[in-house]
Each structure stands twice: as structure tokens, then as C-alpha cells.
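To whoever picks this up:

The nightly regression suite flagged Zinc-dependent alcohol dehydrogenase family protein as changed. Nothing in the input moved, so I suspect the structure step. Input below, exactly as stored in the fixture:
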Amino acid sequence: MRAAVIRAFNEDLSLETVADPACPDTGVVLKVSACGVCRSDHHGWSGEHPRVKPGAILGHEYCGEVVEAGRLASYKVGDKLIAPFILACGRCQACKMGVSQTCPDQVAPGFTCQGAYAEYVAVPFDHNLVRLPDSLSPRLAAGLGCRVTTSWHALTDRAALRPGEWLAVHGTGGIGLAAVVLGKALGARVIAVDIVAEKLELALKLGAEAAVNASEVNAAEAIREITGGGAQVSMEALGVTATANASIECLGQLGRHIQVGMPVGKTARMELNMNAVYMKNLALFGSRGMPSWKYPSLLELIERGEVDLSPMVSREIGLSGASAELKAMNGPTPPGTAVITDFLN
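Regenerated output under the current build:
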């Protein structure tokens, strides 16, 4: 099969013909229809993610069609499926408690095994997979495996966002844009924060009530002024110290900070304004992924037309275009997200 392989960190991915993946007993092999290029992939490509080594194939936001099914598989050849990026074992205490996104025995394609920057991907523990609705195109479904599901779970479960509350979103990449769209759908008043004017313009078009350019003003101060005292919920969607502190400091009394951006490598440990946490009685939530049982609530919202995710995808690219997208993440990125839909070029 054709695949984009890491041979050296921070260098162009190597387009190679490699062996097709073996089918796991507990899962399937998918012919990949689409795979998103996510900022989390950048951590692997740059060498910051401890589990990603040279020879790895990235790609954790994918959907596709079953071409081979294992003897214990839940699905059959021909089924079209969406894959969450966390594949939980289904047997451990975390899985039995319904918090499979914290499963200690999880598999994460693109990080702990080969991912979907390739024609085919092996998916163990296929009880995590969800059928792709006919009304949802693969280019949009690819983002459901990470950016959209992650935002949905963070807002509805971890932060318990309520209608009428102010939601600040720091970073308007894939997860941040999804939070803008979903926050609006949940009845929140959304403030988008970024340093790229074009990305803020897109966030306003997608439902943000206000936009703050953090390169021009103190973001936390601006949000406190807009909201008349501070946001009730704030999401950090980059995984860096400056935006994590801005997210904490923009909150009002009893506010809730959600850490969704991945702190890894040099940002795995941060210096945070704990005095603000203490003085304002803030709650800090970590949020990564979403348990697969929550998919129906999100898919029903999409199928009813209550959210439109199509403006989030601004670029369809070939496999050869993934390197340029990853390099762009070394600095401010353009608006919207990129999805690989051509795996031969």
C-alpha cells in the first residue's frame, strides 16, 4: 500500500510502498476514505511525542470501508465506519465505568501503532467504531474521530456547558473551530481567541459572538471586559503555556477551564497561575477524546442539521500534501483544516 512514513523528525514524510497491515482478530482493516491532518500529528512529526519513532505512520482522524474482518470482529466487509482515535479494550474498569477514553490498555493509531496516512489501516478493538451515516461525507466524518468528538465531550461532559454561558475558545484550529460551532449549538455565547485575523473572521462566521486577537491585546483582560467579569467556561486548544494561562485568567468566579490542547514534550510541564485558580475558586478539567457510546448524541445533532461542520474543512489534499500541512504548524496556520482524500498522490 501507499503510505507517508516518518523517516526523520521535522523532515518531509517519505512516500513509500509498504506492506498492507495485518488484520487483528478483534478488529478490521479499513480502506481509508479520508484522514484529517491534526495538530496532534505535529507532535509526532516533530519528535515531541514519546511514542512516535522513525518508521511510524501518522494519522488518527480517519474513516473508511472494511476490506477485511478478524474472526472476533463486530463488523463485516463493506461496512463504512468512523473511528475514534482512542480504541479502548472494552474489558478494564475504565471501560466498564463508561470512561473508555481513559482506558489504560488503549490503542491509538498514529501514536502507539501505525496510523491512517496510508491506503489501509488496521483497527483493533473494533467495538469502538461507529457506522458512517449516509448523510455524512468522508471528508467531514474524518474530523469526527478527534477534533469534533473531543470538543463535544469536553463541552458537554467535562465542563457541562449550559445555555447562556460565556465560552472562551483559545486557539481556532480544528478542535477550537469545532468548539465554536458546538458551543453555539449548545446555546453558549462564544468568544474566539487567536493571533491570525483570518481565523478569527472564520470563527465569527461560524457562530462566535466576539473575537479577540491575542497578538494585539491581553486576551484575558479583553474577555473579562466583554463578559462583564469573566467567562464561565474556557477551553485551551493549543497545549502551550501562554494560552493555558490566558484561559485560566479570563474566567470569572467559579469558572471552569478545560485543557484540551495536548501538553507534550517541552510543554508537558507548565507554570500556571494557581493564584487565579485559588482566588476565584476555579475548576480545572483535563479532556482527551470521547467514549464511543457518546457518538449517537453528536451524530443526531449533525443529521438534524443543527450544526454544519462543512466550513471547517478548507483543504482536501493528497498524501504528498501532508508534509506541508505539518510544517505550517510550526507557526500560525491558515484558517480551516486539511483532510487527505487522495492516498495515491
